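subagent[fold] <- orchestrator: predict structure for attached chain, return tokens only, no commentary.
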Amino acid sequence: MSSKTLDEQLTDLEDDIRKLKIEFDIYFNGGKPRPPYDTKNRVETLIKRLYEDRSMRFQARFRYNQIVSRFTAFRQMWQRTIQDREEGRDLRAQYLANFRGAEEQRREEFSEAFNDFDMEVALEGMRGNPLPPRFEPTTVQISRPEEQEDCIRRLFDSVVAAKQTVGEKADTNYEKFRDIIIYNTRKLCAERQADGINFSVDIENGKVKFKAK
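subagent[fold] -> orchestrator:
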């Protein structure tokens, strides 16, 4: 188990990908006889290990997906360039063309993913590694808020995830959120003469919708 924090491990992953790109640049420019597959395999192993870290919260998952999306674009570009070399094309010119194409594709993909993550784009080609879910709408029924801490926490995490998915600043004050849920549950149950209130979190037209029914 690594003694580093998750943020430090994500920073290490970013650094390793930058170093890997430099190694591929050197290879494609004739400075190395073989592609840096050992380094590439180490990066992919770290990507998979971080993906399997179940303690990763939504903010870290957002950053992780940004990093993996960029790596995936680089990897596709490297594969195309190696294929071009094998087929006898102008390696240097094709490498530059592939790089521009990969960066443009990544920008287009991430502009969409910023509002609605698509992990199939971020982890395309990672065989045997199941993809994490995209944001899913959440509905929680609360009737006794003082006894349903886990439900309130789940609701809070869903609100934070939804806001980060659409690029909104998320209020991370859980205690304040909990107090609001307790107050509104009591108030709405009394007004509606209901036994419980269904709170739901969803994304509609690029905006977070938080409702109480």
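orchestrator: received. Logging for downstream: Residues 6-122 form one domain. The first helix runs from residue 6 to 28.
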